[in-house]
Write a structure and sequence with these properties.
By secondary structure, this protein is of the alpha/beta class. Helices cover 42% and strands 13% of the residues. It has eight helices and seven strands, in the order βαβαβαβαβαβαααβ. Bound molecules: nicotinamide-adenine-dinucleotide.
């Protein structure tokens, strides 16, 4: 019998409390990884830990409440993960935000607050994950990856700009990290049916969105999680600096 895809791996996941991050936590644990899970919300994180514990034993799971914008917190979490599991093989950054006015206001009404919020969480938070202290010092293969988006959208300037910045950040990181045997990739999902999508797009618009995709339906968070699992596994050894579309054909249309 072959061993699970991520047997022996230790992977950290941000934004593990909801949507794509939660599905990644469950999938990666199911694929055999020990997981270090973080989220800003202790309540959501606890719910995820309970779900993850239905597919792996509690000793394979570490949970910590943190804000990815806080660099010291992110660094401390890496240290705790390495202390607990002995190493860190990869990271999936699924924490991200839609600023308040996302989907409501055209670009000329973007506020400084919305702009700063998107840049802070989506870009600086991702930078914190990639440059996290200790991560590059651990003597194993590391694979950070982030969930971003390369499509623009009406009234989404602050969000779209921040997510395009993340793609640039991941590409630059991949080049710097490659000589150290560290791979860095970006996952760019189309519309995925998660709490974030439900809170920013009403049911009627979500239906229209689904119909507009070549595949005629929204994506599931667990489908993105399968891709994340592959990217942090040894099966994707030659893939780095890539931008992986997972969008039901949206970018092809
Ligand atoms: N759902 C989609 O259609 C879609 C499409 C493209 C990209 N994305 C991106 O994928 C990622 C996950 O999206 P989702 O739909 O699962 O969202 P979600 O809102 O369901 O989950 C995001 C999680 O991140 C956490 N979080 C937010 N800010 C944080 C911070 N500063 N520090 C720590 N945790 C924080 C939230 O508490 C939440 O649990 C986001 O970056 C999002 O922009 C989503």
């Amino acid at each position: 019998m072959s061993s699970p895809l991520l047997a022996g791996k230790v992977i950290s996941i941000t934004g593990a409390g909801s949507g794509i991050g939660r599905s990644c936590a469950i999938r990666l644990a199911q694929d055999g990884a020990k997981v270090s899970l973080t989220d800003m919300s202790s309540e959501l994180l606890e719910e995820t830990i309970e779900l993850v514990c239905t597919v792996t034993s509690r000793e394979n799971v570490l949970g910590r409440v943190l804000d990815i914008v806080d660099r010291q917190e992110v660094d401390a979490c890496v240290e705790e993960t390495v202390r607990r599991f002995g190493k860190l093989d990869g990271a999936v950054n699924a924490a991200g935000v839609h600023p308040k006015e996302s989907g409501k206001e055209p670009i000329w009404n973007v506020t400084d607050d919305d702009w700063a919020f998107a840049q802070d969480v989506n870009v600086r938070g991702t930078l914190n994950l990639v440059r996290q202290g200790g991560f590059f010092g651990v003597p194993v293969n590391r694979r950070p990856g982030s969930i971003c988006s390369v499509k623009g959208g009406a009234k989404l300037a602050a969000y779209t700009a921040s997510k395009h910045a993340v793609v640039g950040l991941m590409r630059a990181a991949a080049i710097d990290a490659a000589p150290h045997d560290i791979r860095v990739n970006a996952i760019c999902p189309g519309p995925i049916d998660t709490p974030m999508l439900r809170s920013t797009v009403d049911a009627e618009k979500r239906d229209a969105m689904a119909r507009s995709l070549p595949i005629q339906r929204l994506g599931g968070a667990e489908e993105v999680a399968h891709l994340a699992s592959f990217l942090v596994s040894d099966r994707s050894k030659f893939i780095t600096g890539s931008v992986q579309m997972i969008d039901g054909g949206q970018s092809a249309a």
